[in-house]
Specification:
single chain; alpha/beta; Spore Coat Polysaccharide Biosynthesis Protein SpsA, Chain A; Jelly Rolls; 6-stranded antiparallel β-sheet; 5-stranded mixed barrel; 30 strands; about 25% helix; globular
Length: about 475
């Protein structure tokens, strides 16, 4: 049995402005109709060896993750919520503790949720071969044969060949890991043909990796054991104890275990692979036109070559540029040379330092019941477009500083206003005075869309008191 552990907790800062802290790249459909998380699940869903998934994510993304898993009808999944990010070693420890607590000792495969893999059959065969090595006590990482010098990946130096008693596949001992190199050093490593790219994917038996973690990083295991054992089930999620997990040292499984263990091996992965970590990666992966351009959305170009241009809400036109990236969203535009896109994270750090909302969320904000998007805002009023999914409902709430006026433009709304329940159809409206308890619900089979006009002395999202919420939110 193989239990995939999907790591879906990153923020994807190098893919800003499309990827934001509250809606990161793994939850976006960057390649096709499925999101990166959904693609990761789907590439394993037909494997007989896989019976369930573990998804580890930030608690801010919990409802988005659950909704996306339901949309692809994944096998049973445990969604574990991290109160803070602590890198991959604690995530591996938590996953191992989870499967061991269930009474088994399966092989667990650690998979970031932001990888692109094109040959699914070869990938699945590699997992089966890795499971054989893992069952014999090895700690397996997957190596990618490099086709070009890349500074965004770590490298693994090959050692002697290792054979499994269960198959005819050969793996190699790990001689050493090399952190992301300079471009000059990357050229040397690729030219030597002695190195793999480090894919960041691993497989090991749960008890075996926990044993190595206890040997090399006991403080991580101690904190994770406490966080897991004192955690709580919350709706569809398992919520780790915040205090214990925040006290856990942050470290990668590479540093904590793989660089120290005598039983680490690397298994070559013979398929096209890419870590979707930058806009340049998306340029490499996507189909390009005769001028080597990738164009997404409403894009018009003249005399443009080797560029990636992505429009989401309006026409983007470009003339006479080479080797550039342009990404447009409703509230931000990025322009960068393709060879400088790794520095986008510097811009995101500046946005965070200035407490800019553009670092955290998109103009359209997603909630477990649907989404809202500001249309217009001024000092004492705000207009929003609100979409409520069929069968969903907002919390029963009240505001102290604003009144609201709702107009139904599509679907049917069931409105609670103090002790009243009012059913509204298209082109009907209702007024919610300041201080009145109220709730909006969609009893229909199509999305409910309303225009909300807020008016008052303060229009912040924190002006809310919840009395009842089916999603378990407290504030």
């Amino acid at each position: 049995m193989i239990v995939p552990v999907i790591l879906a907790g990153g923020s994807g800062t190098r893919l800003w402005p499309l990827s934001r802290e509250l809606f990161p790249k793994q939850l976006l459909p960057l390649l096709g109709n499925d999101t990166m998380l959904q693609s990761t699940v789907l590439r394993l869903s037909e494997m007989e060896e896989v019976e369930e998934f573990i998804v580890i994510c930030n608690e801010n993304h919990r409802f988005l993750v659950a909704e996306q898993l339901r949309a692809v009808e994944s096998k049973p999944a445990t969604i574990i919520l991290e109160p803070v990010g602590r890198n991959t070693a604690p995530a591996v420890a938590i996953a191992a503790l989870k499967v061991l607590a269930a009474g088994g000792d399966p092989n667990i495969v650690i998979l970031p949720a932001d990888h692109h893999i094109d040959d699914i059959a070869s990938f699945q065969e590699a997992l089966r071969a890795a499971a054989d090595f893992s069952s014999e006590g090895y700690l397996v990482t997957f190596g990618i044969i490099p086709h070009s010098p890349q500074t965004g990946y770590g490298y693994i130096r090959k050692g002697e060949k290792i054979s499994s008693s269960s198959n005819n596949v050969c793996a190699l001992r790990i001689e050493k890991f090399i952190e992301k190199p300079s471009i000059e050093r990357a050229r040397e490593l690729v030219a030597s043909e002695c190195y793999f790219w480090n894919s960041g994917m691993f497989m090991f038996q749960a008890s075996r990796v926990l044993q190595e973690l206890e040997r090399f990083a006991p403080s991580i295991v101690q904190s994770c054991r406490q966080a897991f054992e004192t955690g709580l089930r919350d709706l569809d999620f398992y919520r780790l104890d915040a205090g214990a997990f925040e006290a856990c040292p942050a470290d990668s499984i590479d540093y904590a275990v793989m660089e120290k263990t005598e039983n680490g091996i690397v298994l070559p992965l013979h398929c096209t692979w890419d870590d979707i970590g930058s806009w340049d990666a998306l340029w490499r992966i996507n189909d390009r036109d005769g001028s080597e351009n990738v164009m997404v959305g409403d894009v018009l170009v003249h005399d443009v070559e080797n560029s990636y241009i992505h429009a989401t809400s309006r026409l983007v036109a470009a003339v006479g540029i080479r080797n550039h990236v342009i990404v447009e969203t409703p509230d931000a535009v990025l322009i960068s040379p393709r060879d400088r896109v790794q520095d986008v994270k510097i811009l995101v750090n500046k946005l965070k330092a200035e407490n800019r909302e553009e670092a955290l969320s998109h103009r359209k904000v997603y909630r477990p019941w649907g989404a809202y998007e500001p249309i217009d805002v001024d000092r004492r009023f705000q207009v929003k477009r609100i979409t409520v999914k069929p069968g969903a409902k907002l919390s029963l709430q009240r505001h102290f500083h604003r009144a609201e006026h709702w107009v139904v433009v599509r679907g049917t709304a069931l409105v609670t206003r103090d002790d009243e329940e009012i059913l509204l159809k298209e082109d009907e409206s209702i007024y919610i005075p300041l201080g009145v308890r109220h709730r909006l619900e969609n009893p229909g089979r199509i999305p409910l869309e309303i225009v909300e006009v807020q008016s008052g002395s303060y229009l912040g999202e924190d002006d809310i008191v919840r009395f009842d919420d089916i999603y378990g939110r407290e504030h």
